[in-house]
Design brief:
This protein is α/β, with parallel strands linked by helices. The chain is 35% helix and 13% strand. It folds into 2 domains: 179 residues, NAD(P)-binding Rossmann-like Domain (Rossmann fold); 182 residues, Rossmann fold (3-Layer(aba) Sandwich), CATH 3.40.50.720.
Length: 373
Amino acid sequence: MFAGFMHATTHEMDLKKNMQNLLQGQWNRPFRVGLTRDFLNPDGSLGFGDIGLDLLDGTDGVEWEFLPHSAPELCAEQIHDYDALMVLGPRVTARTFAGVERLSLVARFGVGYDNIDVDACTQCGVALTITPEGVRRPVAASVLTLLLALSHKLLIKDRLTREGRWSERLVHMGSGLTNRTLGIIGLGNIGREVFRLTAPLSMRHLATDPRIDPQAIADESVSLVDLDTLLRESDFVVVCCALSEETQHLLNAERLAYMKPTAYLINVARGPIVDQRALTAALLEKRIAGAGLDVFEQEPIEMDDPLLKLDNVILSPHALCWTDECFLGNGTSAIASILDVAAGRTPQHVVNAPVLDLPLFQRKLRRYTRDKE
């Protein structure tokens, strides 16, 4: 116990000294980057292939390493000696920042940030960035994959072939896409890319997004409508919005009932946006034609979940967009943010934009500029 007390006291003294150095502009340490350990396989090898780490290796004054331990939530003791973090899955909360003065950036590897306390980042003078350019094409391609597989009933026809049930081919007629209506919930980076990829298919495009000014898409072949209209008119409904308090169970039993019995639902965003129990009932009772799901309310999905027994749903373990293109794009985007901050520059794709004007964050950026002088 005495050793633990001494460790804590020494740590607190280091934090105070670091803060004094920060305020006085006396910071001569290398720019240190920590990567959460869930980037690694259990054997210690890199799980996602090339994610651009050579960019860090090739930058003078920058050191990086994987955090020594995996944890569902990062703690202050793990991160107090880093200037930037590249985060995959662990939660970053207010407790994570307790007593931490050095950290300037949390670079989220991906675009979802429901595992990050954005307000806590801002209050501690820490910028939070995401990687929209890395996921835009891979996730949009995942939507296209599910769209084509559902419309052609690929999964069912694969099963017919494997089980020698060729005589049932006529029972499972697919749906052509020409003049069908594609509705996207959330017209952001990925939603717009889906419309670009599907443009040659001659589909009608609908979208709903309360943040979008209709004038901003006046030159695009997209009609902005309210959510209920989109659900009633679409043959394919794609969920591309972020998870928030407002979008939790956005598609509940009442709204799912608006969909056509011939319509399909695709979700590549976050599982809790859809009431999974209500969706399962709609699929089981054939009130909608089918679904393609890359995300679930609980992940991993329980092996006794009734969704797994349905033949009108295609399931993927929150990994359909996982390609070499996706991981290299996410990595290089996150690392670009890290290197911007290391050079004293404002990074791109900042989620908590108000942090950029805070004196604390500005002082942190200036210390890196002074280090280069």
